[in-house]
Design goal:
The protein has 109 residues and is mainly alpha-helical. The protein has one domain (11-103): Winged helix-like DNA-binding domain superfamily/Winged helix DNA-binding domain (Arc Repressor Mutant, subunit A, Orthogonal Bundle), CATH 1.10.10. It has helices spanning 14-22, 29-40, 46-58, 78-105; strands at residues 62-64, 74-76. The chain has a two-stranded antiparallel sheet with strand order 1-2. 17% of the residues are buried.
Length: 109
Protein backbone atom coordinates (compact mmCIF):
# COMPACT_ATOMS: atom_id res chain seq x y z
CA UNK A 1 0.00 0.00 0.00
CA UNK A 2 1.40 3.40 -1.01
CA UNK A 3 1.71 6.10 1.61
CA UNK A 4 0.08 9.51 1.27
CA UNK A 5 3.56 10.95 0.74
CA UNK A 6 3.77 9.04 -2.55
CA UNK A 7 0.93 11.24 -3.83
CA UNK A 8 3.19 14.28 -3.55
CA UNK A 9 5.50 12.88 -6.23
CA UNK A 10 9.26 12.96 -6.29
CA UNK A 11 10.97 16.22 -5.48
CA UNK A 12 14.23 15.02 -7.01
CA UNK A 13 15.66 16.47 -10.18
CA UNK A 14 17.41 13.72 -12.16
CA UNK A 15 20.28 16.10 -13.02
CA UNK A 16 20.97 16.73 -9.33
CA UNK A 17 20.82 13.00 -8.64
CA UNK A 18 23.29 12.18 -11.43
CA UNK A 19 25.69 14.94 -10.39
CA UNK A 20 25.44 13.83 -6.76
CA UNK A 21 26.25 10.27 -7.78
CA UNK A 22 29.25 11.37 -9.84
CA UNK A 23 30.47 13.58 -6.99
CA UNK A 24 31.47 10.29 -5.33
CA UNK A 25 33.68 9.29 -8.27
CA UNK A 26 33.43 8.21 -11.87
CA UNK A 27 30.70 5.70 -12.73
CA UNK A 28 29.06 4.06 -15.73
CA UNK A 29 25.28 4.06 -16.27
CA UNK A 30 24.32 0.97 -14.29
CA UNK A 31 26.51 2.02 -11.35
CA UNK A 32 24.81 5.45 -11.33
CA UNK A 33 21.33 3.91 -11.43
CA UNK A 34 22.23 1.63 -8.49
CA UNK A 35 23.85 4.47 -6.52
CA UNK A 36 20.90 6.84 -7.07
CA UNK A 37 18.42 4.14 -6.11
CA UNK A 38 20.34 3.50 -2.87
CA UNK A 39 21.00 7.19 -2.14
CA UNK A 40 17.55 8.63 -2.92
CA UNK A 41 15.19 5.72 -3.46
CA UNK A 42 14.66 6.89 -7.05
CA UNK A 43 15.02 4.55 -10.02
CA UNK A 44 16.06 6.31 -13.22
CA UNK A 45 15.11 4.43 -16.36
CA UNK A 46 17.57 4.25 -19.27
CA UNK A 47 15.78 6.95 -21.28
CA UNK A 48 15.87 9.40 -18.39
CA UNK A 49 19.45 8.56 -17.42
CA UNK A 50 20.94 8.85 -20.89
CA UNK A 51 18.92 12.00 -21.63
CA UNK A 52 20.32 13.60 -18.47
CA UNK A 53 23.86 12.41 -19.25
CA UNK A 54 23.65 13.89 -22.74
CA UNK A 55 22.34 17.22 -21.46
CA UNK A 56 24.91 17.46 -18.65
CA UNK A 57 27.71 16.62 -21.08
CA UNK A 58 26.53 19.34 -23.51
CA UNK A 59 26.55 21.81 -20.61
CA UNK A 60 30.11 20.81 -19.66
CA UNK A 61 29.05 19.57 -16.22
CA UNK A 62 30.21 16.01 -16.84
CA UNK A 63 32.57 14.33 -19.26
CA UNK A 64 32.58 10.88 -20.78
CA UNK A 65 35.71 8.83 -20.24
CA UNK A 66 37.07 6.17 -22.61
CA UNK A 67 34.80 3.13 -22.80
CA UNK A 68 35.62 0.09 -20.70
CA UNK A 69 34.26 -2.70 -22.89
CA UNK A 70 30.58 -1.90 -23.40
CA UNK A 71 30.48 0.50 -20.47
CA UNK A 72 31.28 4.20 -20.71
CA UNK A 73 32.13 5.86 -17.40
CA UNK A 74 31.46 9.53 -16.71
CA UNK A 75 32.92 12.00 -14.24
CA UNK A 76 31.82 15.35 -12.90
CA UNK A 77 33.76 18.42 -14.06
CA UNK A 78 34.81 21.38 -11.91
CA UNK A 79 31.91 23.38 -13.36
CA UNK A 80 29.51 20.56 -12.58
CA UNK A 81 30.78 20.39 -9.00
CA UNK A 82 30.23 24.15 -8.57
CA UNK A 83 26.72 23.95 -10.02
CA UNK A 84 25.88 20.96 -7.80
CA UNK A 85 27.15 22.71 -4.69
CA UNK A 86 25.04 25.80 -5.45
CA UNK A 87 21.93 23.69 -6.08
CA UNK A 88 22.40 21.57 -2.94
CA UNK A 89 23.00 24.68 -0.84
CA UNK A 90 19.65 26.07 -2.03
CA UNK A 91 17.87 22.75 -1.43
CA UNK A 92 19.36 22.59 2.07
CA UNK A 93 18.23 26.14 2.88
CA UNK A 94 14.68 25.39 1.70
CA UNK A 95 14.62 22.15 3.71
CA UNK A 96 15.87 23.88 6.86
CA UNK A 97 13.34 26.70 6.51
CA UNK A 98 10.49 24.24 5.95
CA UNK A 99 11.48 22.11 8.95
CA UNK A 100 11.86 25.16 11.18
CA UNK A 101 8.41 26.41 10.17
CA UNK A 102 6.82 23.01 10.71
CA UNK A 103 8.31 22.72 14.18
CA UNK A 104 7.28 26.26 15.11
CA UNK A 105 3.71 25.59 13.98
CA UNK A 106 3.58 22.20 15.68
CA UNK A 107 2.58 20.66 12.34
CA UNK A 108 4.93 17.68 12.45
CA UNK A 109 2.57 15.43 14.39
Amino acid sequence: MASKLDDLGRWSDPSVLVLSSLAGGEKHGYAMVSDIDEMAGVHLGPGTLYGVLSRLEELGMIEALPAEGRRRPYRITAGGARALEAQLTTISAVAQTGLTRLRAAGSHA
